[in-house]
Design a protein that fits this description.
mainly alpha; Rossmann fold; Arc Repressor Mutant, subunit A; three-stranded parallel beta sheet; two-stranded antiparallel ribbon; 5 strands; about 50% helix; elongated
Length: about 200
């Protein structure tokens, strides 16, 4: 793939004649939410202006509600920034071939909800995705990124992305503040560790 970077649709249109037709468009929205009016309009406009070219959204969150909104606005794929470059390339190729890419973690979340009859409450009042909730619990217990990555079978870089998104949601400036705010906001969401006879902490 030949990759071209542009800051806006307008910038591309000014230089469009210099390049062959686009095969796919990757729109990086970063930490912005799909439901923000500007983002929603941008996705819808791209999907409309480039009707024969698949639009794929790249975003920091893997929340199912955001993914569904992106697809509703016309996107043909949704890639969380936590995935590796190989997955990103394959996702774009899938969209170019006529398919639609969504992260497996979100599909599994839907499956779990359906299997439970839709009765399972979202983790911590719906503030976090299932994976983010797992990372939050590990942070609350003071675990290092490397340990969190090992225990949750994630890349360390993926853990860092999750922590960054968690900090944004909580408006926290560091990991300690995340743990403090979580304990303050959701005191009953985590089991308290028990003290054994030897004085060691265990579950």
């Amino acid at each position: 793939m030949e990759v071209l970077a542009f800051g806006s649709i307008e910038e591309w249109k000014r230089k469009e004649a210099e390049y062959p037709p686009l095969a796919a468009i990757l729109l990086n929205v970063g930490g912005r939410r799909i439901t923000e009016p500007d983002v929603a309009r941008e996705i819808a406009k791209l999907a409309s202006d480039f009707a024969t070219t698949p639009v794929i959204v790249l975003a920091d969150t893997d929340e199912l509600s955001q993914i569904l909104k992106a697809l509703e606005y016309g996107a043909r794929g949704y890639i969380p920034s936590s995935v590796g470059i190989d997955v990103c390339v394959e996702a774009i190729s899938l969209a170019m071939a006529g398919g639609t890419f969504v992260p497996a973690s979100s599909v599994l979340a839907v499956r779990q909800t359906l299997a439970s009859g839709g009765e399972t409450a979202p983790p911590m009042g719906g503030m976090f995705t299932l994976r983010q909730a797992e990372v939050v619990e590990a942070l609350r217990r003071g675990k290092a990124n490397k340990i969190i990555a090992y225990e949750l079978n994630l890349r360390e870089s993926t853990v860092k992305v999750h922590i960054r998104n968690i900090m944004k949601k909580l408006k926290a400036t560091n990991r300690t503040e995340v743990a403090y705010k979580i304990n303050d906001l959701f005191p009953g969401d985590f089991p308290q560790p028990a003290v054994g006879r030897s004085g060691s902490w265990h579950r």
